[in-house]
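Bit of a strange request maybe. I'm writing a small parser for structure token strings and I need a real example to test against, not something I typed by hand. Could someone generate the tokens for this chain?
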Amino acid sequence: MLTGCIDPHEVFPDWKRDFGRTAPLELEIGPGRGAFALDHAERHPELDLIVIETRRSDCELIRSRAAKRGLRNLMVLHGDARLLVPRLFPPGSLAAVHLQFPDPWWKKRHHKRRMLDADFGHQMRALLATGGIVDFRTDVPAYAREGEQTWLEAGFERLPDEPPEVLSTRERRYAISGQPVFRARFRNPGAEVRPTQTGRSGRDWRDVRRK
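Reply from user aminoacidic:
Good idea to test on real output. This should exercise your parser:
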């Protein structure tokens, strides 16, 4: 008989039950209006994709568009990914994580809100299965440089560059305007590579804000 409250780290959602099948599980954090998520889920019916978005209106929009397309392999969750992710996914359960164009949080007092930092990198290393992929994209040069260092220090290995299979709305717009996009993919090599402990936060970078 259980007494008291259950530690949230001990109980996770049953994704196989919720999706009605066993399939590779992927996560996108901050999908915006969902262009990438919708196209990625449609192109890959063999996987299940969970997206976490802070804006309720965008969540409702993605759900509506997914329903119109008949996508049963896309689930939309509303909330703060930093709070939700540790409660949703057990270690080694994810096949891929997509972090595309995270908010730069330009003001110094807001740097602590940046999604990608050393703690997040280590967390993703634990949640991704061996061979699991990180798909990281940004339009901020300093975020690209610091982000790569953060992923590498967490123990990921960078994969060779290749054209993205699916573009986000922002990338399609930038393809017309000529705005550069920095893309990188990383692989979790498993337990044989240990993270590097440097004391670096990974969130204190600075850059010139584009007007």
